[in-house]
C-alpha cells in the first residue's frame, strides 16, 4: 500500500515539473543578467557607471541587431546563416564607396542596406528550394569574402573628406544612436513576429514544415521573408559598425557570425525552429556583451575571455535545451 | 529464469485521464513468464494507452507497476528499457541507409565500441535465423528490404536486446497473409524462450493462433484476463463491443441534396482509371482500402496537395482549378492528414494559433493580424469541437491524442469549408474524443459541407458514412450506399479475396 502511494506521488511530481520549466526558461536569462549586474557592481571597480553601461549597450547594439534579424531565419526552421561577417563587411564597403561618391551618408546607407538585402534574398531563394542553410550561407560567405578581397585588393577602405560617422556619433540624452536603433529594431521585430501574417507564418513554418504546407503556407515565400528581415539587419548593423570604425577591411568583424549565433542560442530560441523570439535574442546579445565587458574591466586577457564566454554559452544552451525537453514531454 | 515469481509484470489500479475523459480507469493487467497475452479492444478502448504506460511513453495519474515482484517507476522509455521491456513498433525504427547487421547493434546498451564487420555479420546471421530471415545477407542495406522483412528485422532487434517483456503493437497491420505467418512464428519462438509477450492486434484470428490468454479493454477499463482455449470468436466480440457502440456514431438524416463536390474523369498518379466521385449535401462519403489502395492519393489530389493529371473537380456544380494547397484552401477545401504529428498539427505552438493557422490571412488586413478576430474565431472553433477553452494557450504537443485530433480537424472550421476531407479521423484517439469528432463531422455535413472520410477501420466507415467506396491497389472495387453493405462484404472488398 505504501509503495502504491509513493509511486503515485512521484508520477504526479513528474507532471507538475513540466509546467514550471516554461517559466524558468523565459525568465532565466533576464534574472541572470540582473545578477551579473548586481555582483559586478559590488565587486568590479568602475562597473556601475553611466559610461560602462553605455558601452555595454553600444557593444550589444551591433551584435544584437543582427541576432534579432537572425532569429527570423532560426524561427523559420532554417537553422543559422554562417555568412554574417562577409555580408556585413560587403555592405560596409558599399557604404564607404557610395558615401565617397555621393557625399551623402544617407544615400550611402540606403544603397548599403539594399545591397545586403539583395544578397540575402538570393540566399533565401536557394534555401527555399530546400537546400541546407548552413551550406548555402557558408558558400555565399566565402564567395562574398573573395569578392571583397578582389574589389578592395585587401586594402583598408576609408572615406576622405566626407562625414560618414554621423550614425555612430549622433547622441540623444548622451546615448548614441545605434542603441536607439537596436531597441527600435527589436521592438519592430517583436511586433512583426507576433502581429503580422508573415511573422506568424515564419513561426508556423519552423514548427512543422509539412503541416505549414498543408495549411497553405508557402515554405519558399516564408523563407524568403525570413531572409529579407535577416539581411536588412545585416545592412543596418554594417552601416552602424562602419560609421563607428570610420573604415572597413576584408578581415574585419571576424567574430560577428559566432557572436550572433551565440546570442540567439543563449537567448533560448530553438535551433529546430518554431520556438523563440527576437526579444530573447536581443537579451542574449545583452548578456554576452555584459559578461564580456565585466571581464574587460577585470583586465582578463582576450584569450581567457573567449574561453570563459564559450564555457558559459555552452552551459546555458545545454540547460535551456534540457528545460525545453522537459517542458514538451 | 525467474519462474518462482508468479507474474513477470503486474500493473494495478492504473488510471490516466485527459480532461473529463478517462483513457484508463483503474486498469489491472498481468503477465506471466513465457506467455503470449493478447490485448483486444475497440479503437480508443485503452489498449494503446496501457501499452504506452508500460513502454514509458505515458506517465499514468495513479497506479503501481511491478516487474518480477519489484515495484518499478516507468517514467521514461529509457527506464522501461532498463526494466527489460522492448517494443516492436508499427513504425519502423530501423535506419534505412545502414546495413541489416548494423541496425541490429544500433541502440543496444551492450554494443561494442567498435567491431570487425566480419564478426558483426556472423552474429547478425544467428539472430536473423531466429526470426526466419536466414536468407537475408546481413550486409544488405535496410532500404532494400520488403515491409515484412523490415517488420521481422524489428523483431530481430528486440531479440538482440535480450528483453524480458516484448510488446507487439499491431505488427501485422500492413502485411500479407504469407508474411503474417512468419511474424507469428517469430512471436511463438520468443515465448518459447521464456520471454513474455504482449500482443496488440485487431485480427481475432491471430489471437486464437498464438495467444495463451487475452485481456479485453473496453472504454478505458480492463476485463480480467481470460484463457484463450475457453473462448470463442463470438464471445470475444461481445466482450469487446459491449453495448455502447450504438451511441458512438451520430444518426444519419438520410436527406440528400444537390452535389457539393464532384470529380469527373479525374486522373491521379497511383490510381488506375478515372475517379468519378460525388458527395451530396447531407452525405458523408467513406473511402476505404488497405495500405496502398490509393484512397490517400485521391484525397491529396482533391485537396490540391498532389498534382492532378487530367479531369476536373466541381464544387457546387462549377469546375475549379486546383493547383497547390493554397488554392484549395481559398476554394474552401479542408484537408486533415492521416498522421497528425507529421503534417496535421504544430506540436510546439499553442492551441489557439494552431486553430487559426489555415485562416490567418482571412483575419488579417494588409498583413496585420487582427488579434481580436483571431481570438473570437479560434474560441468558436474550439467550443464547436469541445476543446477546453482554458487550454487555448497550451502547446498542442502536450495534449492527448484525442484533443490533438480535435485541433487538427477543428482548425478548418475557420476557412468556412465547402468540402472537408478527413483521412483516418480517429487514429490513436480516445473514445470520448471519437464521439465528439464523429458528431461534429455529421453536424458539418448536415449544414451543407461535403464530407469525405477515409479509414482503414471497418467499423468506423460503416458507422459514419452514408456511402462507401472501396479501393484495392489503385482501383475502385465498389461504391454503394451503406445500407447495402455488411461488415463481411466490406472486409471482403477491402481484402479483395476471391474466396
Written description of the protein model:
Chain A contains 13 helices and four strands. Chain A has helices spanning 2-43, 50-75, 84-102, 105-128, 133-152, 166-169, 177-195, 197-207, 209-214, 219-245, 256-267, 278-297, 302-327, and strands spanning 157-158, 171-172, 175-176, 247-248. In chain A, strand 2 and strand 3 (175-176) form a beta hairpin. Chain B has two domains: 9-245, Rossmann fold (3-Layer(aba) Sandwich), CATH 3.40.50; 247-495, 3-Layer(aba) Sandwich (Rossmann fold). Chain B starts with 8 loop residues before the first strand and ends with a helix. The mean pLDDT of chain B is 84.
Helix and strand topology:
The complex is a heterodimer of chains A (329) and B (499).
Chain A: H1 2-43, H2 50-75, H3 84-102, H4 105-128, H5 133-152, E1 157-158, H6 166-169, E2 171-172, E3 175-176, H7 177-195, H8 197-207, H9 209-214, H10 219-245, E4 247-248, H11 256-267, H12 278-297, H13 302-327
Antiparallel strand pairs in A: 1-4, 2-3
Helix pairs in contact in A: 1-12, 1-13, 2-7, 2-8, 2-10, 2-11, 2-12, 3-4, 3-5, 3-10, 4-10, 7-8, 8-10, 11-12, 12-13
Chain B: E1 9-18, E2 21-31, E3 36-41, H1 47-54, E4 62-67, E5 70-72, H2 77-82, E6 85-88, H3 100-105, H4 117-130, H5 147-161, E7 165-169, H6 177-192, E8 196-200, H7 204-210, E9 213-218, E10 221-222, E11 226-227, H8 233-241, E12 259-267, E13 278-280, E14 284-288, H9 295-303, E15 310-315, E16 318-320, H10 325-330, E17 333-336, H11 340-343, H12 351-356, E18 364-365, E19 368-369, H13 371-384, H14 401-410, E20 419-423, H15 431-446, E21 450-454, H16 458-464, E22 467-472, E23 475-481, H17 487-495
Parallel strand pairs in B: 3-8, 3-9, 6-7, 7-8, 14-21, 14-22, 17-20, 20-21
Antiparallel strand pairs in B: 1-2, 1-4, 4-5, 9-10, 9-11, 12-13, 12-15, 15-16, 18-19, 22-23
Helix pairs in contact in B: 5-6, 14-15
Amino acid at each position: 500500500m505504501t509503495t502504491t502511494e509513493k509511486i503515485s506521488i512521484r508520477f504526479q511530481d513528474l507532471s507538475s515539473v513540466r509546467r514550471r520549466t516554461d517559466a524558468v526558461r523565459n525568465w532565466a536569462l533576464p534574472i541572470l543578467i540582473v545578477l551579473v549586474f548586481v555582483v559586478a557592481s559590488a565587486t568590479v571597480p568602475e562597473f556601475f557607471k553611466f559610461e560602462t553601461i553605455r558601452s555595454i549597450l553600444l557593444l550589444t547594439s551591433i551584435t544584437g541587431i543582427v541576432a534579432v534579424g537572425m532569429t527570423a531565419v532560426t524561427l523559420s526552421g532554417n537553422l543559422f546563416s554562417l555568412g554574417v561577417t562577409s555580408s556585413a563587411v560587403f555592405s560596409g564597403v558599399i557604404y564607404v564607396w557610395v558615401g565617397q561618391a555621393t557625399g551623402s551618408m544617407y544615400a550611402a546607407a540606403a544603397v548599403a542596406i539594399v545591397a545586403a538585402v539583395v544578397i540575402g534574398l538570393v540566399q533565401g531563394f536557394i534555401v527555399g528550394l530546400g537546400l541546407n542553410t548552413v551550406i548555402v550561407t557558408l558558400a555565399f560567405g566565402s564567395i562574398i569574402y573573395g569578392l571583397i578581397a578582389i574589389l578592395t585588393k585587401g586594402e583598408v577602405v576609408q572615406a576622405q573628406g566626407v562625414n560618414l560617422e554621423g550614425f555612430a556619433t549622433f547622441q540623444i540624452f548622451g546615448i548614441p544612436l545605434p542603441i536607439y536603433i537596436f531597441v527600435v529594431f527589436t521592438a519592430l521585430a517583436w511586433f512583426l513576429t507576433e502581429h503580422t501574417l508573415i511573422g506568424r507564418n515564419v513561426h508556423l513554418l519552423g514548427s512543422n514544415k509539412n503541416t505549414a504546407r498543408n495549411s497553405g503556407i508557402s515554405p519558399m515565400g516564408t523563407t524568403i521573408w525570413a531572409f529579407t528581415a535577416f539581411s536588412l539587419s545585416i545592412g543596418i548593423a554594417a552601416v552602424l559598425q562602419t560609421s563607428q570604425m570610420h573604415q572597413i577591411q576584408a578581415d574585419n568583424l571576424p567574430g560577428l557570425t559566432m557572436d550572433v549565433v551565440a546570442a540567439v542560442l543563449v537567448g533560448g530560441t530553438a535551433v529546430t525552429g518554431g520556438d523563440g523570439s527576437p526579444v530573447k535574442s536581443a537579451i542574449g546579445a545583452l548578456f554576452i556583451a555584459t559578461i564580456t565587458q565585466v571581464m574587460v574591466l577585470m583586465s582578463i586577457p582576450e584569450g581567457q575571455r573567449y574561453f570563459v564566454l564559450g564555457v558559459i554559452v555552452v552551459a546555458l544552451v545545454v540547460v535551456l535545451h534540457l528545460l525545453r525537453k522537459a517542458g514538451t514531454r | 529464469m525467474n519462474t518462482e515469481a508468479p507474474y513477470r509484470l503486474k500493473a494495478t489500479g492504473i488510471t490516466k485521464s485527459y480532461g473529463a475523459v478517462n483513457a484508463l480507469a483503474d486498469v489491472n493487467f498481468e503477465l506471466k513468464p513465457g506467455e503470449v497475452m493478447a490485448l483486444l479492444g475497440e479503437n480508443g478502448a485503452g489498449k494503446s494507452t496501457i501499452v504506452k504506460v508500460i513502454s514509458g511513453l505515458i506517465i499514468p495519474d495513479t497506479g503501481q507497476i511491478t516487474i518480477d515482484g519489484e515495484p518499478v517507476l516507468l517514467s521514461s522509455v529509457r527506464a522501461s528499457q532498463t526494466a527489460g521491456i522492448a517494443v516492436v513498433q508499427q513504425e519502423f525504427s530501423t535506419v534505412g541507409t545502414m546495413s541489416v547487421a548494423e541496425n541490429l547493434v544500433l541502440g543496444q546498451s551492450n554494443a561494442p565500441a567498435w567491431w570487425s564487420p566480419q564478426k558483426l555479420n556472423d552474429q547478425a546471421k544467428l539472430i536473423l535465423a531466429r526470426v526466419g530471415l536466414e536468407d537475408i545477407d546481413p550486409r544488405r542495406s535496410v532500404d532494400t528490404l520488403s515491409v515484412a522483412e523490415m517488420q521481422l528485422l524489428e523483431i530481430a532487434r528486440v531479440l538482440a536486446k535480450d528483453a524480458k517483456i516484448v510488446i507487439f503493437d499491431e505488427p501485422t497491420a500492413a502485411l500479407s497473409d504469407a508474411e503474417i505467418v512468419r511474424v507469428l512464428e517469430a512471436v511463438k519462438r520468443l515465448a518459447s524462450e521464456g520471454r513474455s509477450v504482449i500482443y496488440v492486434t485487431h485480427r481475432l484470428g491471430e489471437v486464437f493462433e498464438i495467444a495463451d490468454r487475452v485481456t479485453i479493454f473496453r472504454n478505458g477499463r480492463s476485463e480480467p484476463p481470460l484463457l484463450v482455449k475457453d473462448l470463442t470468436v463470438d464471445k470475444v466480440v461481445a466482450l469487446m463491443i459491449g453495448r455502447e457502440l450504438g451511441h458512438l456514431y451520430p444518426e444519419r438524416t438520410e436527406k440528400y441534396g444537390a452535389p457539393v463536390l464532384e470529380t469527373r474523369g479525374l486522373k491521379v498518379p497511383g490510381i488506375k482509371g478515372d475517379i468519378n466521385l460525388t458527395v451530396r449535401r447531407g452525405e458523408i462519403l467513406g473511402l476505404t482500402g488497405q495500405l496502398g489502395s490509393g484512397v490517400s492519393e485521391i484525397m491529396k489530389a482533391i485537396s490540391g496537395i498532389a498534382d492532378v493529371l487530367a479531369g476536373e473537380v466541381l464544387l457546387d456544380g462549377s469546375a475549379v482549378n486546383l493547383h497547390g494547397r493554397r488554392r484549395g484552401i481559398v476554394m474552401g477545401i479542408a484537408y486533415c492528414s492521416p498522421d497528425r504529428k507529421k503534417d496535421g498539427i504544430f506540436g510546439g505552438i499553442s492551441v489557439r494559433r494552431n486553430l487559426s493557422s489555415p485562416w490567418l490571412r482571412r483575419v488579417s488586413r494588409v498583413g496585420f493580424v487582427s488579434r481580436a478576430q483571431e481570438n473570437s474565431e479560434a474560441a468558436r472553433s474550439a467550443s464547436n469541437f469541445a476543446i477546453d477553452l482554458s487550454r487555448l494557450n497550451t502547446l498542442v504537443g502536450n495534449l492527448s491524442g484525442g484533443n490533438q485530433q480535435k485541433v487538427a480537424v477543428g482548425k478548418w472550421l475557420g476557412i468556412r469549408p465547402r468540402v472537408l476531407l478527413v483521412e483516418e479521423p480517429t487514429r490513436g484517439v480516445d473514445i470520448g474524443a471519437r464521439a465528439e469528432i464523429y458528431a461534429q463531422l455529421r453536424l458539418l455535413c448536415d449544414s451543407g459541407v461535403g464530407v469525405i472520410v477515409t479509414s482503414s477501420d471497418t467499423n468506423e466507415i460503416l458507422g459514419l458514412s452514408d456511402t462507401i467506396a472501396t479501393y484495392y491497389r489503385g482501383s475502385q472495387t465498389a461504391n454503394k450506399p451503406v445500407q447495402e453493405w455488411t461488415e463481411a462484404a466490406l472486409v471482403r472488398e477491402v481484402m479483395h479475396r476471391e474466396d
